[in-house]
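User: I'll paste a sequence; please echo it back and then give the predicted structure.

Assistant: Echoing your sequence first, then the prediction.
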Amino acid sequence: MNDNLSNVEISVQELKLLVNTLTKSVALSLRKRYTWLGVIAGLLIGCCLTLVIISLAGKNTDKITVTTQTLLEKSRETISELKQINSKISQLAQTTHGLNEKKQTTDKISASTDVGKTSLSAAQDVIQAKRYIVYLHYMNKKNKKLMERLSAFLNNYGFKVAGIQKVNYHHQDVRYFHDEDKEGALLLQKHLTGFITPFSNLKDTNIKIINLSSKFPNAQKGALELWVNFLTS
């Protein structure tokens, strides 16, 4: 009887031990399964995230590429426009340079022509002036030295000054005695005006021309008279 109970008790203990062993084994197996499931789930999640990142990166790269291409196209257009502007500026500069050279040449020719005309005119005046004899008359004794300078001035321009005389006369005029001598009177008036212009202290410098051919028909041809009374300030 006791032997049977002992066997039973042993059997029960063995059964408990077996159950505990099985329970631990199942728990350990479940833990391993959960671990693997976690690892697999982590791998799946990581792959998904990687794919998402790659996709987003691809889209951003496409956007960057499109933006870069747009900027490059605009840069090319800008460079092309700048080249066209530079070409136009170069053409304008060449045209302006040509016009400036042409203007300078024209100015030089004009200046040379003017100088030539002036020299020719002066030479003609000298030749013409040699035909005339001038008699100088003045009233203001302060003008004596001025008249002496005028005499030398007129001699340089071809006139022959026959003398200087002080008179009682209150006006300024050039007198000629033959119609053909009017040109000489005008030439004398011209040179006289050029002579007295620098003297700012002289007053009443208007010079009239008087024709005395009717009063003195027998006067010397080519004779001119200058009568002045210059006042000083």
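Helices lie at 2-129, 144-156, 182-196. Confidence is low (pLDDT under 50) at residues 4-8.
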